[in-house]
Design goal:
The protein has helices at residues 13-16, 37-43, 62-67, 81-85, 95-106, 130-140, 193-199; strands spanning 32-35, 52-56, 73-77, 116-120, 144-154, 159-161, 166-170, 174-178, 185-187, 203-210, 216-222. The chain is α/β, with parallel strands linked by helices. The longest helix has 12 residues, at 95-106.
């Protein structure tokens, strides 16, 4: 399995749309810290009776590794979120091509039988079309355990950064985000719950909350 490095992205509202800040501000390397209650609620459900399999599609980092250091688990950092967000969607026009792209980016094959218990998608869904969301769900399904949790952030701004940011989990129940140094933006799909439930089936909503940043945090569950 891959053990690589990759960025993901969620930020407070003033960074969701670059139009709200000056381009010079976007080059800062200062991390932004947010509370993410559902993420830690999910992580607190980690079983102590068996090894937990956790898929984090973002960038491997010391802080997240330290957070899981006392947890009986196997971590996959797949370095895939930026690779997926950079794909030329116009050339990936069939389910087969999308599946091949996911295999290359995420690294799991159909017969791997991974039994993943928790998946951290971060802000990736905001960068995918509805067909790609459906494809991601069907691609992950064979790798999941019977009750896999799926965590994500959905943006509610008309525009968002062209590239995902980097995420780190901290022991103080917080997440830090470092936006990538880009000054341009793209239209945000602003997915509603009804659409997410349709595109991510058979994963269904477990819990959701609106963060103070204006970003919607979701937990879906396979049941």
């Amino acid at each position: 399995m891959p053990s690589q490095i990759s960025p993901a992205w969620n930020t407070p509202a003033h960074l969701v749309s670059n139009r709200q800040v000056k381009p010079a501000d976007l080059s800062t390397e200062v991390d932004i810290t947010i509370k993410s209650p559902l993420l830690f609620e999910m992580l607190n459900k980690v079983s102590q009776e068996k090894k937990n399999i956790i898929l984090d599609i973002s960038q491997a980092n010391r802080s997240s590794l330290e957070f899981f250091s006392d947890t009986w688990c196997k971590l996959y950092f797949t370095n895939s979120i930026t690779e997926i967000s950079k794909l030329e969607t116009s050339s990936i026009n069939t389910a087969h091509k999308w599946h091949r792209a996911l295999v290359k980016s995420v690294g799991f094959y159909k017969n791997d039988k991974t039994d993943i218990d928790m998946i951290l998608l971060w802000g990736l869904p905001n960068y995918l079309s509805k067909d790609q969301l459906k494809g991601l769900s069907s691609y992950l399904l064979p790798q999941c355990s019977k009750n896999t949790y799926l965590h994500m952030y959905i943006f509610n701004s008309e525009f968002m950064s062209r590239l995902p940011a980097n995420y780190k989990i901290h022991n103080k129940n917080s997440v830090s985000i470092k936006p990538q140094n880009v000054s341009d933006e793209i239209v945000c799909p602003m997915y509603h719950l009804t659409n997410l439930q349709k595109y991510l089936a058979p994963f269904t909503l477990d819990h959701s909350v609106m963060l103070s940043s204006g970003i919607q945090e979701y937990i879906f569950k396979l049941s």
